[in-house]
Amino acid sequence: xxxxxxxxxxxxxxxxxxxxxxxxxxxxxxxxxxxxxxxxxxxxxxxxxxxxxxxxxxxxxxxxxxxxxxxxxxxxxxxxxxxxxxxxxxxxxxxxxxxxxxxxxxxxxxxxxxxxxxxxxxxxxxxxxxxxxxxxxxxxxxxxxxxxxxxxxxxxxxxxxxxxxxxxxxxxxxxxxxxxxxxxxxxxxxxxxxxxxxxxxxxxxxxxxxxxxxxxxxxxxxxxxxxxxxxxxxxxxxxxxxxxxxxxxxxxxxxxxxxxxxxxxxxxxxxxxxxxx
Length: 277
What we know:
- By secondary structure, the chain is of the alpha+beta class.
- It has 5 helices and 11 strands; from the N terminus they run E-E-E-E-E-E-H-E-E-H-E-E-E-H-H-H.
- The strands form 3 sheets. Strands 1-2-8-11-10-9-7 form a 7-stranded mixed barrel.
- Strand 3 (47-48) and strand 4 form a beta hairpin.
């Protein structure tokens, strides 16, 4: 497994060295955008409509919109000062019962594994969480962002960490359209509904479910491979190996042409200045 983050858990005065690993991975089949006429791979470019040109990464800054045409801008150094110090510490701030933590708050799930040293303290925390039937609420810095997270035992094997939304990031359920405050349910309909729930309970487990769309897409890909419906990416000019001497000669010609154009433009500018003078 690839290490996402390396640091330590702060548990009272206990210091537990740990490593963070992604617990999930996307299984979506990646399809690339190609130019239909030549099968060339499409590239995304940052484009400035004001300058009418592409922008390099080093030319970018971040801005907060005040209105349609006004921004408060920040350089990277300014944003670094605003972010909390990346202390490489998962600081436990509270312990809660599992039913106190709403699943709506959880974001991405990770595994926490012990580092090469300090495994005794790691397993002590794991067993303490199991015995107390509590989850640990903590904060840590990941990719320059302070995350709220929850630590819980994962089937007695390791500690699971899930990043969480802050309260102000959760939308109120009351904002959902067409909800009613006066709910009445027909008793006979409820009885039938409960019978259906009971009959469908325990018939399967989550491990048995697969993504049917993904399976159909992979089958279609294999079918096209078997039928040789494969297109080749066009070879770009930069990928073609040419004679070194020829390349040097062409470069000289190109630079001379550029110099001639620049000289012509400079002469025109000087002539205009003389005429204005």
